[in-house]
């Protein structure tokens, strides 16, 4: 069955899934997976496969559905990744790639598919070849630096008011010290939390009263950092303060495509919370960072449902019990036991995440164009000499979110290099699964000609193409000016429909008649990602995308296409019996319907 989903692929030496990727036949069974390159056929007829990454057995995660995966002969040419010397080599990353049959090489070669680095420098992006991927976007500092992130959110707050109240009131010091001083006089009993601009792991963080000592005032007038209003009504778990580490993957900023991980970390302080000002210097009470609390005598490791021997045991009936770190599943259980609305909180967190990316997108768009040596006006349409484009980067983010007693989430910061260390069985499961899902979602494609060589074929017997690789390469390589013209056509139709004051489904599908090859490629690529996301769920674009239209300074052609697509019915149209009424006859037929 797996081989038939390729349509044009011949029989072995590409073997069946049983040769290396055994199907998970029961919920409690974790299949033994051999170290082989695995491919995931497209869900659409005639489109190329992507690399597939199963979960490592030792991580303890229930294996993802693998019915569609096929393994490649060990005689296939090697594929490579490189790990920049500037970044720690995490076991979660290394083990997932190794299990997927991807070999390590050095950054100075040009044969790698993935470079895992601490940041993406413009010169690296410029040298990127078509098909190569980087794990950071150029300009991601606009998310990672607390001062820059707050500038972008403040700009949106000035325009949209309370709709963008996603972050506690903040001031960039020392530049806005006087404004902060006025605020402290206005609300003298408020507490504040000061953070260095570019630090992480709780380093340098201080909790302050509104009335500063002379020494603190002199220091803060000179030292760069961000000071935030302290959330004075945090939701507590068994009397302990906590925050959430929410894992988010962005595969593209134009179109904006955001995926949220189904699991994350609930990080608890190790000292019971108190509002007394005498406790402000107690870091393990007021700070929830793992790096701050891990050395506390009160810290309890989460064994992820296993005893000291690694055997499974029953989960605690009340969330994560006394552990100092929980999973989101355990938090949901805790909420359910107390009648708290977990799903409502998650929706508000997703809203916060989407608004954060919309706020920083204009600055990152300019940095991308500048980094590739093109005019800022080209934005995400800018391309590097070797073929780098808008889909050449992806990024895994760690959003730190605090929840108050009203179940309102507050964004504390965004980590562009979230720790992937596995300090506990819980960390190992969540982070290893996250990496495998992210790599499969990104959709690495082997170099041109690799499939033919992997199957032992030669040019002489290439009577039938393996797949149409050219249409996938198109994506959105058109100049910004042309994309803008096409966007105006779609917007013109939208204005016409609105003026007629009709809102039938037929009206919503009229935009599909104006879709060109580029638009349909955007649709197919988006649908393919949704089908291979694993534990990563797309939160943008969705049927709710139209709610965020007004937050974009200018809605791009790519975002507009996917918004109109979802308004017309979205990916369900590809499987609908009415497909022939709305979609062009030449559009590839969907032949697989199992999400993996």
Q: How does this structure look, described?
A:
Helix content is 31%, strand content 15%. It has helices at residues 91-99, 122-126, 141-144, 146-160, 177-186, 214-220, 283-286, 290-293, 328-337, 342-371, 425-442, 450-454, 469-474, 480-499, 505-509, 517-531, 557-568, 579-582, and strands at 38-40, 50-52, 70-71, 79-83, 102-105, 112-116, 133-134, 170-173, 191-195, 206-209, 225-229, 236-237, 240-253, 256-261, 265-268, 325-327, 395-403, 409-415, 536-540. Strands 12, 13, 14, 15, 16, 17, 18 and 19 form an eight-stranded antiparallel β-sheet that branches. It has a four-stranded parallel β-sheet with strand order 5-4-6-7. The protein has a four-stranded antiparallel β-sheet with strand order 8-11-9-10, with helices on both faces. The chain has 596 residues and is α+β, with helices and mostly antiparallel strands. Strand 12 (236-237) and strand 13 form a beta hairpin.
Shape: globular
**Mind summarizing the main beta sheet?**
8 strands, antiparallel
Note the total helix count: 18
Radius of gyration: 25 Å
What's the helical proportion of residues? 25-40%
First-last Cα distance: 15 Å
Classify the secondary structure makeup into a structural class: alpha+beta
Strand content: 15-25%
Mean pLDDT: 87
Strand segment count: 19
Low-confidence stretches: 1-30, 457-466, 468-474
């Amino acid at each position: 069955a797996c081989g038939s989903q390729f349509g044009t692929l011949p029989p072995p030496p590409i073997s069946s899934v049983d040769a290396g990727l055994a199907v998970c036949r029961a919920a409690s069974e974790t299949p033994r997976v051999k170290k082989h390159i695995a491919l995931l056929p497209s869900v659409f007829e005639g489109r190329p496969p992507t690399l597939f990454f199963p979960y490592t057995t030792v991580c303890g995660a229930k294996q993802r559905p693998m019915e569609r995966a096929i393994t490649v002969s060990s005689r296939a040419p090697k594929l490579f990744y490189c790990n920049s010397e500037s970044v720690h080599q995490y076991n979660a990353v290394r083990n997932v790639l190794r299990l997927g049959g991807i070999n390590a090489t050095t950054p100075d070669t040009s044969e790698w598919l993935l470079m895992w680095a601490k940041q993406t420098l413009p010169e690296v992006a410029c040298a990127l070849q078509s098909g190569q991927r980087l794990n950071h976007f150029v300009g991601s500092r606009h998310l990672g630096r607390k001062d820059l992130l707050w500038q972008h959110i403040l700009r949106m707050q000035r325009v949209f008011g309370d709709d963008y109240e996603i972050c506690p009131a903040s001031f960039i010091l020392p530049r806005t010290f006087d404004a902060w001083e006025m605020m402290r006089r206005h609300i003298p009993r408020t507490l504040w939390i000061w953070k260095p601009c570019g630090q992480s792991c709780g380093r340098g963080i201080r909790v302050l009263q509104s009335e500063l000592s002379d020494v603190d005032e002199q220091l803060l007038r000179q030292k760069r950092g961000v000071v935030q209003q302290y959330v004075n009504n945090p939701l507590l778990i068994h009397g302990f303060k906590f925050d959430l580490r929410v894992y988010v993957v962005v595969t593209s900023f134009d179109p904006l495509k955001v995926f949220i991980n189904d699991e994350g970390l609930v990080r608890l302080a190790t000292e019971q919370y108190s509002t007394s000002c005498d406790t402000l210097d107690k870091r393990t009470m007021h700070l929830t960072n793992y790096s701050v609390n891990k050395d506390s005598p009160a810290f309890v490791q989460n064994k992820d449902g296993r005893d000291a021997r690694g055997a499974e045991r029953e989960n605690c009936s009340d969330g994560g019990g006394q552990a100092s770190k929980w999973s989101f599943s355990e938090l949901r259980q805790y909420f359910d036991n107390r009648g708290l609305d977990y799903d409502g909180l998650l929706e508000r967190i997703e809203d916060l995440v989407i608004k954060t990316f919309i706020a920083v997108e204009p600055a990152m768009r300019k940095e991308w164009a500048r980094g590739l040596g093109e005019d800022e006006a080209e934005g995400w349409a800018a391309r590097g000499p070797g073929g780098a484009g808008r889909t050449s980067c992806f990024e895994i983010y760690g959003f730190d979110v605090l929840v108050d007693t009203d179940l309102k989430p507050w964004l504390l910061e965004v980590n562009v290099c979230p720790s992937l260390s596995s300090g506990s069985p819980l960390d190992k499961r969540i982070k290893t699964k996250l990496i495998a899902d992210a790599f499969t979602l990104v959709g690495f494609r082997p170099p041109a000609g690799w499939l033919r060589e992997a199957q032992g074929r030669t040019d002489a017997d290439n009577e039938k193409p393996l797949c149409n690789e050219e249409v996938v390469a198109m994506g959105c390589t058109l100049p910004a000016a042309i994309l803008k013209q096409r966007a105006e056509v779609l917007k013109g139709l939208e204005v016409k429909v609105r003026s007629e004051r009709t809102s039938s489904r037929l009206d919503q599908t009229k935009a599909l008649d104006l879709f060109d090859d580029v638009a349909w490629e955007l649709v197919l690529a988006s649908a393919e990602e949704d089908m291979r996301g694993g534990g990563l769920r797309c939160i943008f674009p969705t049927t709710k995308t139209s709610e965020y239209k007004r937050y974009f300074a200018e809605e791009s052609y790519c975002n507009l296409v996917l918004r109109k697509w979802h308004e017309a019915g979205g990916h369900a149209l590809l499987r609908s019996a009415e497909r022939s009424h709305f979609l062009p006859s030449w559009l590839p037929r969907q032949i697989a319907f199992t999400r993996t």
